[in-house]
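Thread: Modeling a multi-component assembly for a lab meeting

Hi all, long-time lurker, first post. My supervisor asked me to bring a structural picture of a complex we are working on to next week's group meeting, and I have zero experience with this. I have the sequence lines for every component (1036 residues in total). Could someone generate the structure of the whole assembly? Inputs are pasted exactly as I received them:
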Amino acid sequence: MAEPGSEWFVNGCRPLVAACALLVGMCIPFGAATAQSPTSIDGHVFHAEGHTPCGDALIQAWPCGTTFSADLDGRFEATCQQGIDSVTVLAHGHAVVTALVDGRTHIDIALESLAVALEDAAVNARSSDDLEEARSMEEAGDLMTTLDRAAGIRSLDLGAGMIQPVLRGLVGSRVAVLEDGVPQAGGRWGADHGVLLDPVLYDGTDWVPGGGQVWLSPEAMGGGVRLRGLGMLVHPGSRIQTGLGHRAGDGRSRLYFLHRERTEEFQWHAGVSLARFGDRNVPQRTFRYLGRVLELEQGFLPNTGGRAAHGVFGTRWNPEAGGQVALDVRFSDVLQGLFPGIIGVPSQSDLIGDGDRFTVELPRQQAQRLQLAGKWIRPGVIDRTVRWSLSRNLRVESAPAHAHGFGPEPDSDLSLQLEEVHAFLEGRWEGVHGAFGLQLEHLDGQTSGWEFLLPEHQRTRLSAIADWKWRAGRLGLRLDGLKVSHEAHVEPLYAADGSVVGDDVRTLAMDRMLMGWALNAHQPFEAGERVTGHWTATVYSRVPDSYALAANGIHHGTFRFEQGNADLRPERTAEVRLHIGSTAGLPSRFSWSVSGFAALHDGFIHLTPTAQFAPIAHAGQIYAFQALDAFRTGGEIEAEWSVGQGSLSTSVAMLGQWALETGLGLPFTAPTEIGTVLHWPLGQRARIRLRHRAIGAANLTARNELPTPGASLWGLECQIEGERMTLALDADNLLNVAWLDHVSAYRTLGLVTQGRWASLRLTFDVTREDDHP
Amino acid sequence: MKYNTIMAAIVATAAFTSCGTTDTELPTICDSDDLTGLPSVRNDEIEVEAGSTVVVHDAFCDNEGLGEIRWDLHSAEDHEHEEGEEEEFVLASGTDWEALEMRSVSGTKAEEQFSFEVPLTSRGIWDLVVSVVDAEGNAANDVITTVHVENDHIPEFNVFTVDGADPAEWEGEPVWAPGSTVVLSGSVADSDGVAEAEVLLIRESDETVVWSAEIEATGDTLILFNVDVAVPADAAEGEYHLEMEATDGTGVEMHTGFHLEVE
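Re: Modeling a multi-component assembly
Sure thing. I ran the full set together rather than chain by chain. Output:
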């Protein structure tokens, strides 16, 4: 913990104290001047039938005419400086509703579906993209914090630039990250290979728990994180979203700008986000690695700084006839220094640092992505949609040249390069009874560098998908045909004197055709007037990824030697999920929900330690991909009480994962976590949130995985919202607790999670509407 | 509600699916029955002579069945193995060598020997790390001992003070300023007499010698020296290496030194 008077305390806390004082000072006048006229209202929009949230509604506040959107929970907030007398609510497939405000500050609005009578069946007009299981995620300034604050999700990271979502204990290629329905590629199998995106350059983020979702790609065994593509503005005009922020702790600064300009039929948009971050601050001075005790003299993880840049440029064209066309170019470039212990054994001199927290030295990882994506929608009795994407993903890992075992030293820093070209095409036909679609996907991976990990590989998938609307629920079926192949890789085998004594066969060539499938039944239900829910029962299979089939080398990101198995067959799963909760939109001071799942896996493919050591120095034990039956269960309980003007909400996330043959836990089984948030408004425009995370001890561990003690973490958020501006101060780990994150890649090294940090963010959202004729 | 009943039945069935059990007990390095008198990795330190062959003997135990043993011998420079361990100023010299051997074993107890050749040109401290894994993949905590290599064959440098300070008292890497002069005080010795000796300052990024000076060598077996190391005023900031090289009366060469930072 930082001592009073220490450099961090003085330099880090002084601006934060000043910022707190500024915010509190700004909050008080707002609080004291609580206005009678409702210049700001909030509420919920829900479907009249079933009382489920209507997450795609637009709310137009009058007389100012400004349009707001509801989130996936149907919640909205609307503000007009001159006051609000009524709101108009629009949602696809529903009758337009105009409601008088009558001085209220909270208003709930029910929407009636526009039902289509067809063959005596009334079918709701709802898109196959609208998944009832989806849950919205509140943007928290950076991807890692956004993920960690959603119950059931954790983040796994190697630094502020390389972050992976962990959904209910599953990670990597088992979690699909979809941008407007297109799965993101780019070495997703690596826990150290962060996803390349910034949520501010999308129209929102949600996550869908669990596997068997027929449209989310067969990889989505743990579920998917969905980023909504930038939509067209509701009216001709423009919208600018911009923001900047700084985080004391690791010195992370971020700036973003997103502009949209729409005429009657055409819109263009462009956005960019830039971030720079320094070495991660940790309240820790020593750690142990491979039996060695090493010091962190400066209180930072050296060489974990970096930078990230993301951008988007695109158009939307919505002519009267011909359908809607969307075209986007997205790019990302992330440079992340890697902690010296990640590659080889760190020496004490590596850990001293060079005094500049922002310098990125070897080892490092650079990830680049360039994507051209498009969508064409032709509405009609049968909506036709074509999605396509072509992307190039490059991941370059550089390290000081060193030889594992005998043989010559490499002559460059390039330890591993992974270049992937990914193409995706989806055609979808959707009517009132359901949807049918085809997905075609191809991935071509080329590898190079002196550190062999996996060979050049290819993967082609063709899927046929059918999704019937069945009663108020759905029945989905997906059939996959996959062709997976990889090349052979042979290296010279050296003797101690450097002479070549044979061949080191790292992989043999493979070319296989594999089948996959998913069957999914989903049904909402009501249990009385005040309780609603839905259940899902699904069986599905997943073809192992190329890494599980072909890897054979040191994986620097996980600090160990990992070995694939070309004989693995698709893993099969039977899973049930249940969600029940209080009906949204009913007047109540208490709301709650419970979500749970149970999954039985036949041949769950995961890395398990073997009885062999790696044939090269400092590489530890060999971890091999094995298919072992497994059982996973868990869930989330969420509750919210209205307390005076504020609210108290709590969430409990639980997870259990076992390998059935051994009775041991599966790797990365997150411990139980209880999150509590006290939300208190200060007037119309300001609020504070006091947060607490109680993380239980992780004792359900895999073989050789160390248990992790629990932790208690406090955080504080203070936010002021203007009509177009938001100022937020967010502090985390207030007591600078040294705690180990069981699902962090750094846990293996005994390195604690980031210490206290505080970020100050200022954002603007300015919409201008052209005059209507 | 019938759906809920079905759901509950499925969940209960899955939850009560019988789980297997497995051996999770870690293998150990245990007492040897075969008293060979050979050194063990459980010794605090193993003293060896350069040019000799060393054999280490240990016994390994597991409750169900052993899997594999690994011996990893590497230089101890620049790290410590125990928290708070006294960190000596070690001038590792001669060949930076290492040895690695894996051996499959079975049964509940195995007596195994690991032998290695110590190069004639090495001097300093090495770490011997022994790891063992059982047949189920349970890995024991590494056991480590220090291998102290004595050498009468190659010249030996000793550094008494650097700018008046005992290098054993250093905390981390020394930092020298461009344009500064640092006084290096020490000795170089060899039983065959020291024929040549030199001190060099080398920039690590491109291996450029930015400064050097010869130590006057008269063929004596012990030479005391005081050298003023002049860091060039235009020396680029970064990592450097102070190299000390010597040749004895029979032509045997050696080099040693330490890392520093110019800032």
